[in-house]
Amino acid sequence: MPLELLLWTSYVARLLRLPAPYEPDIARTAYAPRATITHRINVFGFARQKRDAVAAHRSQIGSSGLAARMFGVLLQLPPQAFGVLFPREWFVDPALSSGSPGSVHRDIFD
Predict the structure, then answer these.
(1) How far is the C-alpha of 21 from the C-alpha of 45, rounded, in Å?
(2) Tens digit of pLDDT for each residue in 53-88?
């Protein structure tokens, strides 16, 4: 996910008094700025697998509190709804990131 999108999501979550996905300091070092992203892949067709992969990280959320409840709701969504909310994956290929800025591939085999 682009850093800018994560920071915007965190900002909106704070405005709505919801738990932010990450603290701003963690987000700035754990995610890539949009300008460095080389691939944006549509994974809507793999929503069930993506939801199951996200579920494998449940221990990172904890078992109580609002964040845990929201995480549980996300995991209960039908695959199609989960796919609408999370339709993409983003990647940085270091061999390409120094190439032409703004050029984003839609296929990992480009």
Answers:
(1) 24
(2) 988 887 777 677 777 888 888 899 999 999 999 999
Q: What total of structural domains would you count in the chain?
A: 1
Amino acid identity for residue 86 in this structure:
F
Residue 31 to residue 102: CA distance in whole angstroms: 17
Domain assignment present for 5: yes
Does residue 6 fall inside a structural domain?
A: yes
Q: What type of residue is 84?
A: V
Mean pLDDT for 17-45 is: 83
Residue 10: other Cβ atoms inside 10 A: 19
Regarding pTM above 0.85, the answer is: no
Q: How many CB atoms lie within 10 A of CB 43?
A: 13
CA distances from 17 to 10, 13, 20 (A): 10, 6, 9
Residue from 16, 39, 43, 27 nearest 92 by CA: 39
